[in-house]
Specification:
Blueprint lengths: L2 H16 L4 E5 L8 H12 L4 E5 H4 L7 H9 L3 E7 L7 H10 L17 E7 L15 H4 L1 H9 L3 E8 L7 H17 L1
Parallel strand pairs: 1-2, 1-3, 3-4, 4-5
Helix pairs in contact: 2-8
Length: 192
């Protein structure tokens, strides 16, 4: 191998090992205009100049009728997907559940021929109105326990669950101070 070919080969290997993942934040907030926490997170993400796209399904589909092919095509373009939403009744908002039911179809996301989500990294960024003290085993369950069905779904479709980032107590008097400290950790979680 010539020295030029070796140099090119080493450059390509180095480039492939340092290439940042393309990331999609699938935003599922029913009222983003009133969510100080989620808006702050998204603004920080925008200012971070990272290779991240935000896809707001409540804004795009106010009639709740998904263009399934378009959604599936979008997912194939990304290595990492972050599902961002507020806990509602200790669960995901209803439009996100419908999105999962409609888009992650058998034969596409799982089952025979369903390999389009294989190897992708999927995580969750979640906000809560409830304070930290109620998210424990003696009350309603930890955030990790409440996200276990999401983790199972991610694994079922052949993707890698990368965990979650949570901001608890979004309406407490100290939320603004805590959010200032939390925002960098959120951006790091989404873009790492």
């Amino acid at each position: 191998m010539s020295s030029l070919a070796l140099l090119k080969s080493n450059f390509i290997k180095k480039y492939l090992n340092t290439k940042k993942m393309k990331t999609l934040v699938l935003l599922a907030h029913p009222n983003i205009a009133q969510s100080h926490t989620n808006k702050t997170w998204l603004e920080a993400l925008k200012n971070s100049n990272q290779n991240v796209e935000v896809h707001d399904i409540y804004s795009k589909y106010p009639d709740w009728k998904f263009n399934v092919t378009e959604e599936q095509d979008l997912l194939t373009k990304y290595d990492r997907i972050i599902l961002q939403y507020p806990f509602q009744w200790y669960n995901m908002p209803p439009l996100l559940k419908k999105w999962m039911d409609d888009v992650l179809q058998q034969g596409w996301a799982y089952g025979e021929g369903g390999n389009y989500m294989q190897g992708k990294e999927i995580g969750v960024a979640v906000t809560t109105a409830g304070v930290k003290d109620v998210y424990d085993e003696s009350h309603f369950g930890t955030v990790e326990q409440l996200l276990r069905p999401m983790e199972s779904t991610v694994k079922f479709i052949g993707s890698k669950y990368i965990g979650y980032h949570a901001f608890l107590g979004a309406y407490t008097p100290d939320a603004g101070d805590r959010l200032t400290k939390d925002t960098d950790a959120y951006v790091e979680f989404v873009t790492k």
